[in-house]
Amino acid sequence: MTTRLQTLDEIRAAGLEALARALGPVGMIRFLQQFETGSGDYTQERRAWLGDLTVDEIAERIRHRRAAP
């Protein structure tokens, strides 16, 4: 018995069909989005967003926001 190797396109199409069948179209998209690498430099963006805050300062801000009405 010989088995024909599927091309990468065939494997991709079969995989997408299986995902869509098992998860539905929205679930399939949400699943695939987990593997997006994104763009930008998170470390640089984080520094711009948080500045030079210490862990204690960040924790204090969290406590303050949780206590606010």
Care to describe what's here?
- By secondary structure, the protein is mainly α.
- It has one domain.
- It is 70% helix and 0% strand.
- The protein contains 3 helices and no strands.
- The protein is elongated.
- The mean pLDDT is 91.
Query: In angstroms, what separates the terminal alpha carbons?
Result: 71 Å
Helices and strands: which structural class?
Answer: mainly alpha
Q: Give the total of domains.
A: 1
Shape type = elongated
Evaluate the radius of gyration: 22 Å
Percent of residues in helices: 55-70%
**Quantity of strands, as a count:** 0
- Biggest sheet overview: none
Elements, N to C (H/E):
HHH
Number of distinct helices? 3
Overall residue-averaged pLDDT value? 91
